[in-house]
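README, section 4: Worked example with a bound small molecule

Sections 1 through 3 covered apo chains. Here we extend the same pipeline to holo records, where the ligand is supplied as SMILES alongside the sequence. The molecule in this example is zinc ion. Nothing else about the input changes; the structure line simply encodes the ligand pose together with the chain.
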Amino acid sequence: MKQQLIRVCPKCGSPNIRSASSVGGWLVPTTYYCEEESCGYSGSVYVEVTVDELEDLQKLMNGDNTD
Ligand SMILES: [Zn+2]
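The generated complex, written as structure tokens:
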């Protein structure tokens, strides 16, 4: 059984990340943008995780701030 992989932001862990499609098919590295306004990450790197891993990742990134 294969788990579905999700692309997430390497900065905040949000799954709201989109790739900018390159125009004209040039060999330009794809840039990924985080759609979280509080984050604003853009870069050529993203993190790919399973749903289970995403939950752990977001727990790590959120720290122990919640009660
Ligand atoms: Zn982000």
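What to look for in the output: The radius of gyration is 14 Å. The longest strand covers residues 5-8.

Section 5 describes how to batch many such records.
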